[in-house]
Amino acid sequence: MATETPGRETQETLSNLLTETRRFAPPAELAAAANVTAEAYEEAERDRLAFWERAAERLTWAERWHTTLEWNAPFAKWFVGGKLNVAYNCVDRHVEAGLGDRVAYYWEGEPEGHSRTITYAELQREVAKAANALQELGVRKGDRVAIYMPMIPELPIAMLACARIGAIHSVVFGGFSVSALKNRIEDANAKLVITADGGYRRGKPNPLKPTVDEAVAECPGVERVVVVRRTGQEVNWTDKDIWWHDIVDRQPAEHEAVPHDAEDPLFILYTSGTTGKPKGILHTTGGYLTQTSWTHWAVFDLKPETDIYWCTADIGWVTGHSYIVYGPLANAATSVIYEGTPDTPHRGRFWEIVQKYKVTILYTAPTAIRTFMKWGADIPAKFDLSSLRILGSVGEPINPEAYVWYREHIGGNRCPVVDTWWQTETGAIMITPLPGITHAKPGAAMRALPGIVADVVDDKGESVPNGGGGYLVIREPWPSMLRTIWGDDKRYVDTYWSRFEGLYFPGDGAKRDEDGDIWLLGRVDDVMLVSGHNISTTEVESALVSHPKVAEAAVVGASDPVTGQAIVAFVILRGEAEESEDIAAELRAHVASTLGPIAKPRQILVVPELPKTRSGKIMRRLLRDVAENRELGDVTTLTDSSVMKLIAEKLPAAK
Ligand code: ATP
Ligand code: MG
């Protein structure tokens, strides 16, 4: 019987298919010395605002706030009346506390041998000089500065220099095209652009300046372009351009950090564009730094005296903003920054870096973990990874199989894995295990952090009982929440606060298991409706990835005359697995036995690659276009558009 696809409003909530029984308790030693104990949850429950006040007290304020939270729903102000300087908190105060010789960043360039060590004292001088340079160029508090750079030390230095003088930075990922850069410069109306001649990527210099030249030619509001010399490649020069070393190097190494209002804007950052047109997310000063620094300390159990922390994200994404720059520096951590790709010059590069710097905390993304699985466990096995003690994951739901692989082959079965759920919009981690407390389940983000009130609700916004599935929501404002979409309050209200009255809706599906723990099930836009059941792409993908021959999978619902939507799966096989005639049948049977017959894909296609955003997330909407034989939608945030051709060619061969 044909089933009509009902409107999203009338659908039942998510079917809950996956059962996972593996559990990992925190290592006893780690638990005994953990920064945060289970009491934090109770404290925050007793008095949420007092909990966040204590977190804010970890920072140095020039003036204390008078009101912790002013909530004119959905517009929040945190630590109202408080004044602080973010750059002072991230750099100067550590030097004043006698930590000037501590390494802030071990920078590792992609070409081997390009490395640099930057102490907090050096960082203080570099940031002061850069702040003086920005002021000489006429940048004032509230002005927007676009930053389009490779992963080099001048990138965090430029961000901190902006923060220091109260200019609002808008970092644009260095892989973006002319039009993406131009749109972001225009939307924020930036008056200055900071860039570099190029950066190293996949073994060769990758030019950036030509992209900036083309974009700036169409942005008359840009007055100057500051250019860092990184690769030494030939560049075109215009009268707006000035070399970083010409303007920054001659500046005094002192700069007075004036305090800014807790609610002064800190930065604009555009979302990754996985679902459509990116949104300019606005973050402010006091609440953002409070939550990024507290979560970085709590979730990674950071011991700043001894830990070597490495987040592999690009600073052009929010993960890099919050967990390479602001969180770690506010905590006086020692971090690694790596410029290049994981396979240059060889597929063991990440593990070589872990070994070289004796990294203790590693924070990476499921897309990277699945790639390492595909390459094989023998590669990390060649390196000494015994320094590691905590592993993190962010960006997409982590498939249980990828989690277990990560734990075993990278973490030696001794490191807890924290699966951290958050977004550009939330500014900082929201839902995650805590490494010294949580008995973690592979694939589950588990529980909202102390001070965060998350829930899973049905269509009407009512909490679902344990065992139920539905929509993830946040019930109360949090310090690092976005304040608005830049220049568009209406879009802010419509996008996040209109689906459920009084609740923040991030756009993700979730379930609450029998123990009350939270599992993220992918974006609600990706949820499939098969014979009247809402089925999550994440669960079907995880079932596919649990087959020993599959490294990565993407699943979409394509319209089907019988079932409403039918499941179409795209899979990448593991290194050693061969594509064979029977593989599709074998995988379909595997899904049916893991999740039940309802989740059995109609088609399975073996593909060489999947379409991903530049932040590494699978773009299912493009696969849906392919599966339904439509013209492809917006591909501007796609990493490599030739991938879609390769995939489309596979389609007629589908079983
Ligand atoms: P856009 O909003 O423009 O479509 P995006 O959502 O990919 O782009 P980000 O803010 O970088 O932009 O990503 C946040 C999203 O990533 C979350 O809403 C969620 O869908 C996904 N995500 C991040 N971490 C996790 C996690 N640990 N588990 C599940 N999903 C996650
Ligand atoms: Mg999003």
TrEMBL record:
Its cofactor is Mg(2+). Acetylated. Deacetylation by the SIR2-homolog deacetylase activates the enzyme. Mg(2+) binds at residues 545, 547, 550. PROSITE patterns: AMP_BINDING (PS00455). It catalyses: acetate + ATP + CoA = acetyl-CoA + AMP + diphosphate. Transmembrane segments: none annotated. One of its GO terms (cellular component) is cytosol. Residues 98-478 form the AMP-dependent synthetase/ligase domain. Keywords: Acetylation, ATP-binding, Ligase, Magnesium, Metal-binding, Nucleotide-binding. GO terms for biological process: acetyl-CoA biosynthetic process from acetate. Residues 38-90 form the Acetyl-coenzyme A synthetase N-terminal domain. The modification N6-acetyllysine is found at residue 617. CoA binds at residues 201-204, 319, 531. It holds the Pfam family AMP-binding. ATP binds at residues 395-397, 419-424, 508, 523. One of its GO terms (molecular function) is metal ion binding. Its EC number is 6.2.1.1. PANTHER family: ACETYL-COENZYME A SYNTHETASE, ACETYL-COENZYME A SYNTHETASE 1. Catalyzes the conversion of acetate into acetyl-CoA (AcCoA), an essential intermediate at the junction of anabolic and catabolic pathways. AcsA undergoes a two-step reaction. In the first half reaction, AcsA combines acetate with ATP to form acetyl-adenylate (AcAMP) intermediate. In the second half reaction, it can then transfer the acetyl group from AcAMP to the sulfhydryl group of CoA, forming the product AcCoA. NCBIfam families: Ac_CoA_lig_AcsA, PRK00174.1. Belongs to the ATP-dependent AMP-binding enzyme family. This is Acetyl-coenzyme A synthetase. It comes from Thermobispora bispora (strain ATCC 19993 / DSM 43833 / CBS 139.67 / JCM 10125 / KCTC 9307 / NBRC 14880 / R51). The gene is acsA.
